[in-house]
Structure formats: C-alpha cells, structure tokens
Amino acid sequence: MNATTDTVLIEARSIEKRYPNGVLGLKRASLSVQAGEVVVIVGPSGSGKSTLLRTFNGLESITGGEIVVDGHVLHQRSADLRSLRQRVGMVFQQFNLFPHLTVLENLSLAPVKVLKLSAAAAEERARALLVKVGLSDKCDCYPSQLSGGQQQRVAIARALAMQPAVMLFDEPTSALDPEMVGEVLEVMKQLATEGMTMCVVTHEMGFARAVADRVIFMDAGEILCEDPPSAFFDAPKHERLKTFLRQIL
Amino acid sequence: MPNSTSRWLWHGLAVALLAVFGASLYIASKRIDYTWRWERIPQYLISTEGEDQKAPFDGFVAVSEDGKQLSMTALRGSETTSFTDFSRVLVSNGDLVFEGDVLAKKDQLGPGPLLIGLWLTLKISALSLVFALMLGLVVGLGRVSKNPAARDLAAFYVEVIRGTPLLVQIFIVYFFIGTVLQLSAFAAGVVALSVFTGAYVAEIVRAGIEAVPKGQVEAAQSLGLSGFQTMRHVILPQATRRVLPPLAGQSINLIKDSSLVSVMALTDLTKAGREVVSSTFSPFEVWFVVALMYLLLTGVLSIAVRRLEKRFAAQG
Ligand SMILES: Nc1ncnc2c1ncn2[C@@H]1O[C@H](COP(=O)(O)OP(=O)(O)OP(=O)(O)O)[C@@H](O)[C@H]1O
Ligand SMILES: [Mg+2]
User: How far apart are the CA of B301 and the nearest CA of chain A, in angstroms?
Assistant: First the structure.
C-alpha cells in the first residue's frame, strides 16, 4: 500500500517534552519517517524512547518544537487527535487488551464505533486479521485464556483492524517469556515485508539488524545518532552508543 | 488448612456457642419475669380481619334464622336494602342501628401490619436504590471528570453527605425541603435515602473507575475512541465487575438505613414493629421477628448479587 517511498509520514522537528514534574523526557529530538520505512529506536532505560513514540499519536503532548504526523499538525491546539489516532496504530509492552471482550470483540470494537463499520464487515475484517497473525481458532476466547505471545499478536491485529498508515510498537516483546518472543517478531517481520510503516522501540537487536531501514539511538532524551543497521551496529560513531552496544550484546 | 473432620468440629463448636448464647438470652428473660407469647405474633403478620359492612342509613335490621341473610329497613321512609357479601353478622334481628354502624364482617386473609411495613420498607429501599445508583454514577463520573467545576461539585456533595448523620438529613429533607416542595413523607424518604446512599455509591464508582489500569484508557484512545466511548465500552464494563461487591454492601446498608424513615409519618417495618409492640406488650418477640424480616431482605439481596458476580466472573 505504501509503495510511494518519499512521502513523509512523521516529521518531528526539535521536539521537547517536559513532564509536569519538571523532568525533561525529550530534548530537541528531530526525526523524519518516510512511508514504508521501518525505524527501530534503541537506548538505555529512561532515555525517552517511549516518550518519543507516544508523541507520535498524541498520547504525550509536546512542550516545544513541531510535529506533523500523516498531515496532522500536532503542536497546534486544534489538532484532531481522534482522526490522527485512526491512522496510527499502537502496540504496548503490556498488550492492554480489553479483558471483558472476546478476541473478536477486541478487534471489532474500534472499527464499529470509530470507523462506523457494520458489525458484519468488522467481524470479517477481524477474522481475516486473526488468520494473518495465526490465531483464527481463538476468536471467542477472552484475553486471559491466551498466552502472552498470543495476546500480543491479538493486540497487533487489533491495531491493524483500523488500517493505520503507521504502526508504533513500544517494546512489544519485553513482557514475554523468551519462547514467545519469536512468534511476535515473526508477525512484525511479515508486516514490514508488506510495506507497513513502523516505528519500533525494542531491545531485540537481531530484529533491528534484519528488519530496520534505520536504527536510532537515544540517550537522556536526545537522539544521538541514526544510521542503517549495518553502520549502526558494525561501525558505531558515538561513544555512548559504543558503551550501550557493549552492554547489551 | 484443617482436614475435614476437624473442620466439622469447629463448625460444631460455633453452633454450640450460638446455642449457649440463645439459652442465656432465654434464662435472662426468665430472670426479669418475661412471659414469651409467640402466639400473639402471627396475627400481625397475616390478618384475617376483613371488610366491614356498614349501615347506609338509620333503620332496623332483619336477620334470618340461620344468619345467612341480612337486610335493613329505613327508620324514616320505606327504603330497604339487603347485604350479601359477609361471613359473620354482628347484630341481631330487630336491632335499631344508625348510619355507619358495622353490621357484618367479611373474613379475609390479608397482610398484617408487619407485612405491610415490610412492603413499604421494600418499596422505599428499591426505589431509593435505583435513584442512588443513577445519582452515584453521575457524581462518580463527576469525581473523575477532567472538568474542575464538575470535580468540585461532586466532591462537595460527597463530603457534605458523608459528613452529616442520615437522621439529620432526613429531618432536613422532611421538614424543610419537604415543606417547601410539598413532598409526601414517602417522597421525602426516597429523596433522603437516595441522596445519602448516592454519595457512597459515587465513591464506589470513583474507586472502581480508578482501579481500571491506565493502559486500558491509552489503548482505547490509541484506537481513536472518544472519551465517552472509552468510558462506555472500556472503563465502565470493567469497573462494573469491581464495584459489584461494595455496591451489594451499600445496598444492604440502604435497607437497614431505611428504618430511620420511621421518624416521619411513614409506617415502614420498624414503625410497624413499634406499633405492634404497643398493642401486644411483647417487645422481645416483635423485635426478633422484625430483625428476622430485615435479615430476609438483606439475605435475598446478598444471594442475588453473588449470582450476578458469578456470571461476571465467567467471562475471562
Ligand atoms: N508520566 C511521567 N511523568 C514524569 N516523568 C516521566 C513520565 N513518564 C516518563 N517520565 C520520565 O521521562 C524520562 C523518559 O522516560 P521514558 O519512559 O520515555 O523512557 P524509556 O526510554 O521508554 O525507558 P524504558 O526503557 O525504561 O521504557 C524518564 O526519566 C522518566 O522517568
Ligand atoms: Mg519505555
């Protein structure tokens, strides 16, 4: 779908996020993401990765700079966050599935309520997505009846059900038992192959190397460097990135 | 965990202690020379007293030999009338009666004062519960609202109501608001109980909403749901499950609190109990029966809520 590669989907210019308690979560961070790109964000804990990602769908408001996502100017007061969020899917570390709804209902809630799809159309869409993430037999289960890996795959399908232009992943495999990490990464790889625009915060360096078009390193609220994976991992430029890579690899 | 024999032993001990407690009550009542007259109670639960047949004008009555027919001839003029719907005649053939005198009774089973009081308690509690739930939901939502005015008003209401005794509130509603707005005692009772219970329900609703993890709201918003849709489809359904047990407790409190409306001209179960005591002089029996009837109401409610909880628990 996103075959046109030079459309900019996310354009963040020198954004700053100061939390109400005074903590500076982001400092002069600039980033631009093209349609169809896969951008992986890495960095130590507390470096502002989640904060950055959450500014892209307005879960976090910025206190400085400019940010435009899919044509929505987010630094303006009048920003229509609801219509933005229909275009930006988000996957959380803790899945955040709706526990009182079945898998099928989790997937069709937003398409029915927000996109005003008919129940039948939403269900059809949901079933197709569940086939895609390999969970077609779990339609009527409640989230609590699924393993962590299965829940995260449902969460990905739930975001995809809105047919977003961009998908944001905030450490999607960090809460999973090791044996379930693979199945979730597999789904994400497939999405990338299909040309989905993705921003992924992760500690899975194998995934970054294999799938990312660009890898971004953050530290203390700043974007310190961004490079294609080969240059990023094999010839790190920044001193702090070298230290970071030594620690995790 | 104790094994099953020793568990039964402990249950047995509990029963034995209760029996000792009951026996000491009985002995204590003997000491103060109290005669138990349980036989007086049933008539206040179920009354056989039926309708009266009254004389429509002054005149003489005529009763047949077998007492099955009753008729009347007017004292002045030649008007006559006969009665058919009765089971006992209270006058004899040839009696002179005056307008309004009771000539015969129709025996009929009906609720006695205690059951009528129970019915009023049930009615006032049920009605108040419905209003309290609506009020509590609105105020609870106000407590967690983004709007500071809504938050302030909701907090003010909750603090005022929880900080004053229900009895005082009932007096205020009955004597002040009730007089201004010309409320009946029943309406005043419903208002006072709903407003009182609503404040507690609001706190339960607030706690229930706040207990839903923040990630749920973020997930809903990330999907483009509006604030209202998030509340309606994501938060409230999850909060409902959490608030069910405390709401059950609050409803039980409501039933018990409703006994305070007996200070108004309302014959609820407690007031009925008081009236029956003054005509039977059997306070112990009456109050035990009244307590049992309250227990019945609250017990049925507990069971119903437990059923509901099970149904909710079934989903994931
Ligand atoms: N709601 C908040 N209020 C105040 N400070 C916050 C809030 N959220 C995050 N921070 C602070 O902002 C900084 C960046 O946090 P952020 O969660 O973006 O880091 P992160 O890179 O995602 O870390 P992790 O790998 O642990 O998830 C941290 O110092 C954190 O303490
Ligand atoms: Mg994070």
Answer: 25
B185-210 helix and B236-257 helix, angle to the nearest 10 degrees: 140
* Amino acid, res. B216: Q
**What are B209's strand-pairing partners?**
none
Contact residues, chain B, for A96 at CB < 8 Å: 213, 215-216, 218-219
Q: Is A36 in the pocket of ligand 1 (CB under 6 A)?
A: no
- In angstroms, the CA A127 to CA A157 distance is 10
As for the ipTM of the complex, it is 0.92
What string of pLDDT tens digits covers the 249 residues of chain A? Answer: 444 446 899 999 999 999 999 899 999 999 999 999 999 999 999 999 999 999 999 999 999 999 999 988 888 887 788 999 999 999 999 999 999 999 999 999 999 999 999 999 999 999 999 999 999 999 999 999 999 999 999 999 999 999 999 999 999 999 999 999 999 999 999 999 999 999 999 999 999 999 999 999 999 999 999 999 999 999 888 889 999 998 887
Contact B219 A143 (CB under 8 A): no
Residue A94 CB–ligand 1 contact under 6 Å: no
**Residue A92 to residue B237, Cβ atoms within 8 A:** no
How far is the centre of ligand 2, averaged over its atoms, from the C-alpha of B214 (Å)? 15
Where helices occur in B223-282 by DSSP H, the ranges are 227-229, 236-257, 269-280
Rounded CA separation B144/B139 (Å): 9
Task: Say if the Cβ atoms of B222 and A59 lie within 8 Å.
Answer: yes
For residue A145, give the DSSP letter: G
Tokens describing residue B104:
């015969």
Whether residue A167 contacts residue A89, with contact meaning beta carbons closer than 8 Å, is answered with: yes
Query: Cα Rg for chain A, rounded, in angstroms?
Result: 18
How big is chain A, counted in residues? 249
pTM of the model: 0.81
Expressed in angstroms and rounded, the spacing between residue A55 Cα and the centre of ligand 2 is 13
Query: With 0-12 CB in 10 A as exposed, 13-18 as middle and 19+ as buried, what is B220?
Result: buried
